[in-house]
Amino acid sequence: MTEVATTRRSRITPEREAELYSAVLDLLREVGYDALTMDAVAARTRSSKATLYRQWGGKPELVAKAVRHNKPGGSLSDIDTGTLKGDLHALTLRSDDCQMEQNSALMRGLAMAIHDNPDLLKALQEHLIEPELAEFHRVLKRAVDRGEVHADNPAAEYMMHMMIGAFAARTLLDEQSPTQSFLLSYIDAVVLPALGAPTT
Q1: Average pLDDT estimate for 93-111
Q2: Between 6 and 166, whose confidence is greater?
Q3: Beta-carbon contacts of residue 135 (< 8 Å; ≥ 6 apart)
Q4: Domain boundaries, the chain
Q5: Which CATH number applies to 2-58?
Q6: How many angstroms separate the Cα of 83 from the Cα of each of 28, 167, 175?
């Protein structure tokens, strides 16, 4: 199994893979998940459909990996400012308001699509949600180790829920896309106090 996975990954260069992922996201924004086809991806990227299936297995995994690869804000794994507030602020500041607006629209479309596509939900959980949860848990553990957050704080289990909730609720309640200033204020007013972490 490892040999197969290695062979699959080695067929496409990282640069080419990034081009493919970018094209997949462009198509997603244009036509939505349900109307996106592997034929369309192959045509847009001048690839063979056989190569796409060999590399990714199908549309759900290709889309999930594209979202993960191009996720605005990058990874939490290389952020360590010394405080929980600093880490969450640094993550937020990695995405400008335009990126947040694009990402918000994309995630709304995918959130609708997962109701009728369990394979997409499974792929997103594997390639996006679970890695994100693991990263947030590492950031939170550092905060606990520093004494910023009590290990038994019941809100700790819901930190990612709070972050995602702010992102989604901004559109639903305020009819606006999330912005840096909104999310930074939300972190200071809601997330940090709930965790008992310093806000200054």
Answers
A1: 85
A2: 166
A3: 75, 76, 77
A4: 2-58, 84-195
A5: 1.10.10.60
A6: 37, 22, 32
Give the per-residue pLDDT at 79.
87
Cα Rg of the chain, angstroms: 18
In single-letter form, the type of residue at position 192 comes to L
Amino acid identity of residue 42, one-letter, is: A
Q: CA of 61: how far to CAs of 147, 148, 154, in Å?
A: 39, 38, 34
Q: What is the 3-state secondary structure (H, E, C) of 83-136?
A: CHHHHHHHHHHCCCHHHHHHHHHHHHHHHHHCCCCHHHHHHHHHHHHHHHHHHH
Q: Are 104 and 182 in contact (CB under 8 A)?
A: no
Confidence bin at 95 (pLDDT 50/70/90):
confident
| Fold of the domain spanning 84-195 | Tetracycline Repressor; domain 2 (1.10.357)
2-6, 143-147, 172-176: range with lowest mean pLDDT: 2-6
Exposure on the CB side of residue 122, measured as CA atoms within 13 A:
8
Q: What CA–CA distance (Å, rounded) separates 157 from 161?
A: 8
For residue 39, what are its two tokens? 């034929």
Q: Are 127 and 170 in contact (CB under 8 A)?
A: no
Is residue 70 classed as helix, strand or coil in its secondary structure?
A: coil
How far apart are the C-alpha atoms of 127 and 145, rounded to whole Å?
28
**Centroid of chain to Cα 13:** 22
